[in-house]
Amino acid sequence: MANPTTVTRGGGSSPAPGHRRKKNAARARAGGLPAWSIPYVLLVPGLLVIAGLLLYPMFQLAVMAFQKVGLAQIRGTRPAEWVGLQNFENVLANDIFWSALRNTVVFAFVAVSLTLIVGTAVGVLLHKLGKKMSLFVVIGCMFAWAVPPVAQGVIWRSLFDAEAGIVNWALDLLPDWLAAPPDGQASWAGTPWLNDVLPLYIALVVCVVWAGFPFIAVSVLAGLKGIPNELYEAARVDGSGPWRTFTKITLPMLKPVFAVLTILSIIWDFKIFSQLYVLMNGPTNREGFNLSMYAVAEAFKPPQKLGTGAAISVVLTIILLIITVVYVRQIVKQEEM
Amino acid sequence: MTPLARRRLGKILLNTAGVLVFLYAVFPVYWMVATGFKENDQIFTTEFVPFPTHFTFDHFSRVLSEGIANNSIWLYMRNSAIVALGTVLIGSAFALLSATAIARFRFKGRSVFLVVLLIVQMLPAEGLLIPLYMMVKRVGLGDHLLGLIVTQVALTLPFGVWMLRTFVAAVPKSLEEAAWIDGAGRMQAFWKVLFPLVAPGLVATSIFSFITAWNDLVFALYLMSGSEGYTMPVALQYFFGQKGVDWGAIMAGSTLMTVPVVIFFLLVQRRMVSGLVAGAVKG
Fold it and tell me: Which of A3, A165, A206, B52 could form a disulfide with A161 if both were Cys (CB 3.0 to 4.6 A apart)?
């Protein structure tokens, strides 16, 4: 790692004179433990949780993906049956898997791009605003960020409601050349948004961008504050315009921040669940599933097929792990671990 | 246009943009709260009703007295609180021990542990749910809030350790050493010196864990089959009946669920950013 020292911190050698050292060495043993073992003892509970409840279940998930696990296995009346690659074959042969994969990837791409654009724009704006105004806007943004995912889904489901939602009301206000009502309708009133896949995902994107931009904005703001003013002074002296200054100084300086924000956003949007669950009213519309929803629906909607659900989850996990490796490399580069 | 006038115009434009962003962020939340206080005739209309002209507490009193799925909403709030607080108590204790080990000691396997921490944070909860569901059922904790707590501890611990370790590292080691020289044992130094100084970090980490557990939908949805065990996010799904949606009630319920989270969140948002973006931002 970044720090090559191997000095044992907080134990071992102490600068105290000889007669004291004996006393300290005795004390360095917490409850009679040798000093080298202390960190390991401290780690035991955390390791138990991580190994027992995260790593082992992941291993189990991989095993279940090659088994048939149904109601009999859940009740423990019959042992799990090995079925080889059958779960994967069934999944890959199913149109729903491919539409779920498409929904997952396209949604993540659109939502991440928009969240980053809106978030960055707001971050730059916050940086330019006065102190009081900036704080006022940040606090407003915190409200959007703090809303629980389920409540986010509820809010946007109501805003996109066919009859009572104000999205249709707002679209009717716009001139027809900008937002013409759907085919054969005199107005937007009564247009359902959450039944078909495309409008459903438009609503999901709107919801996720709204809830996700504040995090990007405050992170970008923190990054902007870290850029030394001399750079901007120098650019101004050299007669660089605002756009050029932004592309030549701001963006390169913020590159590490953007790398982390992009990866985190991709990971989060890839596994979006609660908001979609509320917007589509549970795992109802199969064409509208993303991979998370598809895995859960296969595993828990009767008849339960946990093996198939596990196979889908394995696919999603592999995709996420590839992205995570990039994230970890970024963090390791920046952190003194 | 004089430079002064131009600067003034620029300021006005910037502030206008700021107000618009504020409205964009806050309006949907406001809409949720406002709808909870509107009469039904102002909810079920294609017109835009900016605020309730006849304030009513009807929806709130209805969800608090009648509740949903044969239980009062207090029961679901209580379940959510038990799960969230249980997660905080167990998770924070474990996180503090692990964070101390990482921040205070150099040992074999330390960097491996750090990388594992980062990776497991990113695992999809919906994927973990499938094997954990089997495990919880096998040990007889299905339908038990404790089973739910255990899963939430697992989900929140990695980020909790990650966040806390910076707080532990920020406490100068010389303080603890001074305590030893003064004759305090290692444990005493930990409790008397390190613990009080790490307390703010512990609060921030606890709030993060609380919010995560409080917001969880998917685990509560499938680990709890009886309605006595529902948490708020699951109970809210029950408002979406077959006969159309009771928006007044669901917005009242959502507001009750959201308020504690927003209050807590405002307290710790800065730490969340620094925890997630790590060294990329010197915030």
Answer: A165
